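Note to self: keep these together.
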Amino acid sequence: MKHQALIPDVSHLTYNTYLKVPELLDLQTLQSSPPQHDETLFIIIHQVYELWFKQILHEVGGMFTYIDNDRHLPFIKSLKRVNRIFDVLVHQIDVLETMTPIEFDRFRGLLNPASGFQSHQFRVAEYALGIRDDAYLKYHETNPMGYAAMKAAIEQPSLWDRVLAFLSRKAILVPDAVLNRDVTQPWEINNELAKTFAGIYRDIEEHPNAYAMLESLLDLDQKLLLWRYRHVAMVERIIGITRGTGGTHGVEYLSQTLTKRAFPEIWEARQHIITSLGCPA
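Structure:
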């Protein structure tokens, strides 16, 4: 007798039960009393950020698998999706900036010592892309789940490590020092690698796939940089240069993050291209 495949009973599945809408709408717990109108906006914006961070990590996890198995096209597809997500993250700041300094100040003091600095998902995303600094781990020791996720992310090859290994397998010259580096350590820019990328840019037709990949990665790095800049500008617009709710130096600290690059040799390659063309640096 042939066994029939069990078909799940979805007769009671609805939009609300599938998306757990009632539970979702019950997650905005205000600290202010009487309730301040703009605290709902502040909570929802940051909850949505965390949901998008979760999706970014999901996509990057898929990209790890794709690139490790030389699946170039699905890698690029997921990479483009992450780029579109960062566009959304930037535009969310437009909504948050509709809140004035006075409106934020009505509940800001109630947020201490909570801070966006404590978002472990964003830190995991940085680690996964290749921006690594284990000094951040100590700030998450009281969050076992977040600490474990960060620790796991920093102990395995990053997206950048994996991309470079892929390019090496495709006969692109990647220095041994890069391929054999200790992946747990912060990235050190490699000038020879930047020169290799400059060569790809000078001869796009010879390496079309490598060129497309580098440009998509540069798009991601630039969008991440734009999001950081908009975040810094938004914070200064709303709280000025005062300290953050978690005790950080607010705008001063955030401004320092604007120098971070996930894929620095793609940027550095521009210098070598310009120099080779005889143009002033």
